[in-house]
Amino acid sequence: xxxxxxxxxxxxxxxxxxxxxxxxxxxxxxxxxxxxxxxxxxxxxxxxxxxxxxxxxxxxxxxxxxxxxxxxxxxxxxxxxxxxxxxxxxxxxxxxxxxxxxxxxxxxxxxxxxxxxxxxxxxxxxxxxxxxxxxxxxxxxxxxxxxxxxxxxxxxxxxxxxxxxxxxxxxxxxxxxxxxxxxxxxxxxxxxxxxxxxxxxxxxxxxxxxxxxxxxxxxxxxxxxxxxxxxxxxxxxxxxxxxxxxxxxxxxxxxxxxx
Length: 259
Prior knowledge:
Blueprint: H1 23-36, E1 38-41, H2 47-62, E2 67-68, E3 84-85, E4 87-90, H3 96-116, E5 122-130, E6 135-139, E7 164-171, E8 184-186, E9 191-192, E10 198-199, E11 210-212, E12 219-223, E13 229-231, E14 238-246
Antiparallel strand pairs: 1-12, 2-4, 3-6, 4-5, 5-14, 6-13, 7-12, 7-14, 8-11, 8-13, 9-10
């Protein structure tokens, strides 16, 4: 069974729900996000919650409840194992671990909005389990670039006609070693073709700004439209949660549905 995506705006967080991270760590992550477009903290997620989420992801994989991930959107959506090899299941908040995680992400949404006036409206997330040999080629998380004429301020707020604005990855891998591979590589800059599309092939041979091991409880934040990244091939089963805070790209007063 593949779960439909749930967005945090669909359900109110539980009263008194704990944030994912302490106030100092949250502030540090947001500061780095604003300064360089991405942020990383090791062991950021509370260990018991991280273990519960890991157990759930592995159980779903064992039960065949994950679906092969696709790339693209709408009519262009497709499976392409040359670009992405992983299996996913959308989080729907039905378990205590998922609810605690999603409630914490709602608290983080509020913190990012207060600090950066980002206009983030909702959050969606899925488990991602990479088999040995799994990877995800270099890409941006946003489906479309902001208008060239909009300038750099289009990365935040509602200036651009897009949805995903801030990405988050949380890693759920116990005892991960360098031999297991599966690192996340991130770049801070890229060029655009004349049509405005990102030219990510131009980054071939360019050293990444960061290479991050997918260690248990570590978290990465990225500006979805600004930070190219890739998942290098894993030599062991690699578990993570990938999530996105979105703006409300509404038309005619109708709330834009989850993508």
